[in-house]
Amino acid sequence: MVAHRGPDDFGEYHDPEGDVAIAVRRLSILDLAGGHQPMSNQDGTVWIVFNGEIYNSPEIRARLIAKGYRFVTMNSDTEVLLHLYEEKQESMLRDLNGMFAFVVYDRARRLLFGARDRIGIKPLYYSRQPGLFAFGSELKSLLTLPTIKREVHRQSIFHYMTLLHIPGESTIFSDIRRLAPGHWFKFDVATQELTLQSYWRLDVRQAENRSEAEWCALIRHELREAVRRWTLSDVPIACSLSGGIDSSTIVGLLREIGYGRVRTYSLGFTGQGEEGWNELDLARQVAKHWETDHHEIVLQPEELLNDLVQMVWHLDEPYGGGLPSWYVFRLMSSDVKVGLTGTGGDELFGNYGKFLRFEGSPVLGTVLNHRGLTEAGKRLPWWVWSAWRKAAGAIPDGLLHVQRKQRLIELEQLCRAPFGHHYYAIQAYFADRAKRETVFNGACEGLDDTEAYLQRLYDKARATSARDGVAYVDFQTQLSEEYLMMTDRLSMAHSLEARVPFLDHEFVEMIFRIPSSIRTRPGDLKYLLKKAVEDLLPKGILGMRKRGFVIPIRLWLRGPLRPLAIRLLSPERLRRQGIFRPSFYRRYVQPHLEGQRDYTWQVWAALMFQLWHFVFIEQNAQHTPTYGWRDIV
Predict the structure, then answer these.
(1) What is the pTM of this model?
(2) Residues 562 and 589 in one domain
(3) Is residue 316 domain-shared with residue 234, that is, in the same domain?
(4) Could you identify which of 318, 375, 459, 496 might form a hypothetical disulfide with 612, taking C-beta atoms 3.0 to 4.6 angstroms apart as the criterion?
(5) Do 179 and 230 reside in the same domain of the chain?
(6) For residues 633 and 564, is the Cβ–Cβ distance under 8 A?
(7) What are the backbone angles phi and psi of residue 310, rounded to the nearest 5°?
(8) Tens digits of per-residue pLDDT, 404-418?
(9) Residue 380 and residue 426 in one domain
């Protein structure tokens, strides 16, 4: 089921006395000959299965050797984890820099100890049932167990139709949960007791007072060191190059640390109306600037249709985002096993300006003139504008009166409260009321609103600014369970390990010590990053507007994907399925396909769920599907 995650090696271990079995598929990156798993310590009392890389393992190894621990491998980071567990047990996680999901079987203590990296780069799922505890890197491996039902988790699909991904610890299946980023679990084999605990979470309240120049120097140094750490490998490394700031910076830093000639891989589109999405020209500028070994793939619409069912299978859960990385990773995997990407740069520096609808509301400064709102204020939702005018009254030129300023500050605090209601996805896709009234077929009773879920996350951040609060929410949702989930699945589908140096936790922690007003600006989100690395980038890159790295879905739904949408979202099919209202087709699908309204993401989210449902529920797929979209239509 998961051979694609590890085509190089396979191993298993069974302890009849403890009634425990663990198994692994291995993609060999470090210590190609000596890293076989499951791996045990010298006396066989501790065993481990491990997915990922520990980038500071050489330093930890040296420290452990100095303490008397004996290593039998040359440089395996798996063995480092084993001895570190022997030394520190659960507290070992504080020492690790890397991306990882691992489970240790401690025979002496009769327990399983598992952990997921701080940011959630690597996945870890588990299922707990009477007399059974199972875990795996992908949902599909757990679905092989006969006791796990393929039952759709209604709360998950409710959130999905707003967020286009499934957040939190629940999954699309009622019987399976995911371990949250920065968490560990401990399962007592004897008592069957499961313990979950957080060992790290993003702290957005540690701002330090430094000059802008000092921050730029620190960004440059820490990101360079992160890139250096994340090149740890016994096999060649390449880079995904979109032509944007983030991936271009990674390429420049690789050359700066003396990596040598870098292999770069870029994606472009062809077809009517798709020219504006191409970033090949920007990628070529970077490749030429650094004299990389550059490779390109130009995507044809027919290719997506041919591969869509395969993508759904590898993604495991419904996913309504774009899918172009599949092709970049496929191209890279023909040459290398490891690819660096720029994932995470956007979330660290403003995340597409999503904070703008909240920023400073309703006081984006204390100076207003008789013409009304500033340009930044115009981005605020109507309810803030209305409340602002009522609180401010007729404001003369010059500074606001002290009492009026205080009233606005109080109003700002009130405006922060309904964060969830005004989060971008609620506004852009489906609000909770719309889901209850026009999407789901009476299956919403008792479900938690997505708005409330997001609000709880925002409140948990205890942020002092909207920029920090939105960043915290995105780290808990979109980054970990959308972008990183997609990156992991689509890369590992091609047996490629995707690495994300921007999400080195030491770099992340440093970035969030920068005051939010310095870290990013409303009109130039990455101005501080660009200032820190401007000498690494061609001048044409620095001033370019971010185009995004997504497939032009709106055009394709009305074109080649139209038959699939009609087939899977027909009223008759929705009625038989009993999840969506049959009227969903008339309300959203038909107006979009006929060009009367733009419901691109609403229809796409529904279509991808239905395609997932067809593969995993209706077909009860046990292996990679051999059919394509034409067979479904």
Answers:
(1) 0.90
(2) yes
(3) yes
(4) 318
(5) no
(6) yes
(7) -65, -40
(8) 555 555 555 544 458
(9) yes
